[in-house]
Write a structure and sequence with these properties.
The chain is an alpha+beta fold. The chain has a single domain (2-7, 103-363), classed as Penicillin V Acylase, Chain A (4-Layer Sandwich). The protein contains 14 helices and 14 strands. It has an eight-stranded mixed beta sheet with strand order 1-4-5-6-7-8-9-10. A six-stranded antiparallel beta sheet has the order 11-2-3-12-13-14. A hairpin with a 4-residue loop joins strand 12 and strand 13 (342-345). Helix 1 runs parallel beside helix 5 and helix 2 runs parallel beside helix 7 (89-99). The longest helix has 19 residues, at 22-40.
Length: 367
């Protein structure tokens, strides 16, 4: 996985990002053309037209995000519309897939371990990110240095603003796709723009305020923690502050997969009925954590390698019988120690890839 380091204004950072990751950006755009057509019956012109409907919401919520997208397009030598489409890819795919009666692929099994449950009293956070196999070829570790807000690092498909990440203030973000019956063609802030905004947070309380400050276009789960030892999980459906269900750790653990746990949202879950592996992955994560005593980073890495219920285990591999654009694999795995200011990540499934160490407090420091 290539590492891309950028700094400066949103425009300057975007141009650097686009230039340094131009090859991956091109491949990402080409791959999503295929995904939209094959999985959602959506041609590129229709995808662009739909993505443009989110511009006003993005500009109102995070004008710097549009500046950064424009910079990425300039740096990579591609149209702004293409970068906008990438950053609205979930909204486009999920709305079109639901209109066809299909369920989009689920992604991610995430967790938080608070100091009371960790072996060294540190705040630990992480996940396996599962998605379509081509994502492995277009992902980068994006490191963003800023003067006005916390610098951050995120593992993300090239051209997108953010995914799972950590920042220099000791705040960490994990996420899971959720699908509700109310997600079709909703207006609001796109999922990946919200993820990028959350990396401005310094605390769990900051994250709560950011999530509740705007209309969101899509259901999603956000599992966040900070170096003080606090963690919180936010299940959301499309909408505003009233459409958020927050939970705190139990016995030092928080964990989530791709189905709703909130009783009021479970009734409108549009994913789990067709994809029960979300239930088995969450159960496997729960068993792994509860059977471990006080949990270490090494033990978390072992749990994230689990193949129970293959091919849809916590560590996921493509089903050989599935079409490549309908398959699912673990694109990257990450375990973060927010207390120590470091994380470990893999390029691909953790069973076949060593965890690489990265100290974000040093490498992504304030200027």
């Amino acid at each position: 996985m290539d590492r891309v380091q950028v700094h400066g204004t949103p425009s300057a950072r975007g141009r650097q990002y686009g230039k340094l990751a131009a090859r991956q950006v091109d491949r990402c755009i080409a791959a999503y053309r295929g995904v939209f057509e094959h999985r959602a019956g959506l041609d590129w012109n229709a995808a662009v037209a739909h993505a443009r409907t989110f511009v006003a919401d993005i500009e109102d919520f995070a004008p710097a995000a549009i500046e950064e997208m424009r910079g990425i397009a300039e740096g990579a030598g591609v149209p702004l519309d293409a970068i906008l489409v990438l950053n609205c890819r979930s909204e486009l795919m999920f709305a079109a897939a639901r209109n066809k009666g299909e369920t989009p692929p689920g992604e991610c099994t995430s967790f938080a371990v608070t100091p009371e449950a960790s072996s060294d009293g540190h705040m630990l956070l992480g996940q396996n990110w599962d998605w379509v196999p081509f994502a492995r070829d277009v992902c980068v570790l994006l490191e963003v240095r800023r003067d006005d807000k916390p610098s951050f690092a995120t593992i993300v498909e090239a051209g997108m603003l953010a995914k799972v990440g950590v920042n220099a203030a000791g705040f960490g973000l994990c996420t899971n796709t959720l699908v509700s019956e109310r997600d079709s063609d909703s207006r609001g802030v796109p999922y990946h723009v919200m993820l990028r905004a959350l990396l401005d947070a310094e605390t769990v309380d900051d994250a709560s305020r950011i999530l509740g400050s705007a209309q969101r276009a899509l259901s999603a789960n956000y599992l966040v923690a900070d170096k003080s030892g606090r963690a919180m999980n936010f299940e959301t459906i499309a909408g505003g502050k009233a459409q958020i269900y927050a939970t705190r750790p139990t016995d030092g653990f928080l964990m989530h997969a791709n189905h709703f746990l909130a009783p009021e949202f479970a009734a409108i879950d549009a994913y789990v009925g067709k994809s029960p592996h979300s239930l088995t992955r969450l159960d496997e994560m729960r068993r792994g954590l509860q059977a471990s005593g006080r949990v270490s980073v090494k033990r978390l890495q072992e749990i994230l390698r689990s193949h129970a219920h293959a091919p849809n285990g916590i560590c996921s591999h493509p089903d050989p019988a599935a079409h490549p654009l309908y398959a699912r694999t673990t694109v990257a795995s990450i375990v973060t120690d927010l207390t120590a200011g470091e994380f470990w990540f893999t390029d691909g499934p953790p069973c076949a890839s060593a965890y690489e160490p990265h100290r974000f407090a040093t490498h992504v420091a304030q200027s």
